[in-house]
Amino acid sequence: MDYLKILTEWFERKVQLNAKKIESDYRYKKWDIWYVDFGVNIWNEFNKQRPALILTNNKFSKWNNVLVAPITSFNLEKKILHTDIILEPNNILKQKSIIRTNHLRDISKKRLIKKVGRVADEILQELDIQLKELFDIRT
What we know:
Blueprint: H1 3-19, E1 32-37, E2 49-54, E3 65-73, E4 84-87, E5 97-100, E6 105-108, E7 112-118, H2 121-134
């Protein structure tokens, strides 16, 4: 498939997303995992529909945006960064995956497709450490 066709299809999808109404079922919570439509982006930016971890509470998203960390599948060809968090397969994610904390994105709630679960409690402490390191926060 050529790139122009991919962009044309994404533009049509983006028009649909823009017209989409924010429904009451978009009540997400911090640490939820949702499928997100990242669309078509440039170079190593995250593309297509994929899971993402919600990093902000609903009460802080008055402008209909939400901060997310994309989740990608794990494979040995991908470079694993020290800020990545590896998730083992479970009832939410069918394969070993990586939370890419260095690829945080502020997205419209209209990009949220559906909630698929919640990150496990044992991951939260590691996630807190990685986000503090990423933003150079000293406590």
